[in-house]
């Protein structure tokens, strides 16, 4: 994939749909990338990202997390979660091209991206919120989906209401406002997935806020 991948004549993505009824915002833009852009981006990321499988400590044991991941960011922008400290890789031109397209659409800037690869329907991520202090009080996270479609679930922290979204290839989900404080989210395991999915979550990290 080259930075010229994006077709200047392609239709402008839609305004998107608000998916949360209260306590934050989650806007889904299903047509953010056209099918050709999405296809090329997926195959580039699958073979070129520095994928790794980390482990997490549970019940006194080190257990491999059920997905692959990688962290790309501006220099000195580090990130960790659940005791996992991710190696920082420098931006590629292809990731920068996607970042610029998302920034132009959303009006927000990002200095990092967490890439996740769900190899089969057995790969998943458990309920959590992206509420680490270094992401700021009201984090803005732009999540781009490539490859196989998967269901994404949001659960209200107080009343346990669950909202299920189908994230299709080329779709963009922008979570902002109080979303990470009012809701948690997951990618559950599934038997219906027939192939790999790559998720790129663009973030703004503020190192000075880290506790």
Structure write-up:
Strand 3 (55-58) and strand 4 (61-64) form a beta hairpin. This protein starts with 16 loop residues before the first strand and ends in an 8-residue tail after the last strand. 31% of the residues are buried. The protein is globular and about 50 Å long. It contains three helices and 16 strands. It is α+β, with helices and mostly antiparallel strands and 211 residues long. The strands form four sheets. An eight-stranded mixed beta sheet has the order 1-2-14-11-16-9-5-8. A four-stranded antiparallel beta sheet has the order 10-15-12-13. A two-stranded antiparallel sheet has the order 3-4. It has one domain: Alpha-ketoglutarate-dependent dioxygenase AlkB-like (Jelly Rolls, Sandwich).
Offer a quick outline of the entry:
The protein has 211 residues and is an alpha+beta fold. It is 15% helix and 36% strand.
CATH homologous superfamily assignment = Alpha-ketoglutarate-dependent dioxygenase AlkB-like
- Summed over residues and divided by their number, the pLDDT gives a mean of 91
Strands in their spatial order, largest beta sheet? 1-2-14-11-16-9-5-8
Strand count, sense and closure of the main sheet?
Answer: 8 strands, mixed
Tell me, what's the shape?
globular
Distance between the termini: 38 Å
Tally of DSSP β-strands: 16
Radius of gyration from CA coordinates: 16 Å
In which range does the helix fraction lie?
Answer: 10-25%
Q: Enumerate the spans where pLDDT stays under 50 for 5 or more consecutive residues.
A: none
Number of helices: 3
Quote the CATH topology: Jelly Rolls
> Helix/strand/pairing class, anyone?
alpha+beta
What percentage of amino acids are in beta strands? 35-45%
Task: Encode the helix/strand succession as letters.
Answer: EEHEEEEEEHEEEEEEHEE
Second CATH tier, the architecture: Sandwich
Q: What is the domain tally?
A: 1
CATH class: Mainly Beta
